[in-house]
């Protein structure tokens, strides 16, 4: 499993007049930890994930993912599913896979998320919930050391979102890996995380961390809601960060 060390000195988009998006942002993720990142819209959460994924190298600072000299496998579930419309679901997933990936592993993931029947259709035939599940298969299929998830369940109806969250936890427990999950939904964060990390904007910085000390087995709706209410009472300023 993989530890992640983040120490970004500065990330300023070219031509950005409003100052840096990230400045002196430090965060450590323990190996196998599930961390939810919560922060206001536009504060720089996607920017941070893009840097971790290696999609944005225009920053100063240091990122370490896993042991020195190793090349980490990174799974990324984007805000929208980003499936190519001219390829079937299976072909979309194949594009992301490293050579030598066991097809039985991918078929197992399709089965876990309930998409076995939809593997060979084109994305236009999928509902949003199905597209989001396909994006999960793509991210998990690379056997990630680090999994990045950027508000992956927005605009799903609550029962579907709950079901997909349960799938994520089931897949994560099947093969534990380090996760950084972005959300604006505190209930979702409490349901999923080992630890919550709160970011404030301008430039983005960590303003608080809370360990979710609820047993995974007992994390039902009642326990999650009680924990969330406790957070609001203990830290009323949280509302401004959602
Ligand atoms: N390619 C870009 N060029 C210039 N500015 C950008 C670019 N991408 C993002 N920004 C700016 O950087 C800031 C952070 O954006 P980012 O998408 O990282 O925020 P976020 O916290 O993920 O927002 P949300 O929660 O709404 O998804 C915003 O002010 C945004 O306008």
TrEMBL record:
GO terms for molecular function: ATP binding; ATP hydrolysis activity. SUPFAM superfamilies: P-loop containing nucleoside triphosphate hydrolases. It holds the Pfam family ABC_tran. Residues 6-226 form the ABC transporter domain. Keywords: ATP-binding, Nucleotide-binding, Transport. Coiled coil: none annotated. The keyword Nucleotide-binding applies. Belongs to the ABC transporter superfamily. This is NitT/TauT family transport system ATP-binding protein. It comes from Methylomagnum ishizawai. The lineage of its organism: Bacteria, Pseudomonadati, Pseudomonadota, Gammaproteobacteria, Methylococcales.
């Amino acid at each position: 499993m993989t530890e992640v060390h983040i120490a970004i000195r500065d990330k300023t988009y070219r031509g950005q007049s409003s100052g840096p998006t990230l400045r002196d942002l430090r965060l450590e993720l323990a190996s196998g930890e599930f961390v939810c990142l919560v922060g206001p819209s536009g504060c720089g959460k996607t920017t941070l994930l893009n840097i971790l994924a290696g999609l944005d190298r225009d920053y100063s600072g240091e990122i370490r993912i896993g042991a020195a000299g190793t090349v980490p496998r990174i799974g990324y579930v984007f805000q929208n599913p980003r499936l190519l419309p001219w390829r079937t679901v299976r072909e979309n997933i194949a594009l992301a896979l490293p050579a030598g990936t066991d097809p039985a592993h991918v078929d197992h993931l399709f089965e876990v998320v309930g998409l076995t029947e939809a593997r060979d259709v084109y994305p236009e035939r999928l509902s949003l919930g199905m597209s989001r599940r396909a994006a999960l298969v793509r991210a998990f299929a690379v056997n990630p050391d680090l999994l990045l998830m950027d508000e992956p369940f927005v605009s799903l109806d609550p029962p579907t979102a709950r079901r997909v969250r349960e799938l994520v936890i089931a897949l994560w427990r099947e093969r534990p890996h380090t996760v950084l999950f972005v959300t604006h939904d505190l209930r979702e964060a409490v349901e999923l995380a080992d630890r919550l990390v709160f970011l404030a904007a301008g430039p983005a910085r960590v303003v608080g961390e809370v360990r979710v000390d609820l047993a995974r087995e007992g994390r039902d709706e009642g326990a999650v809601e009680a924990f969330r209410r406790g957070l609001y009472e203990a830290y009323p300023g949280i509302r401004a960060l959602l």
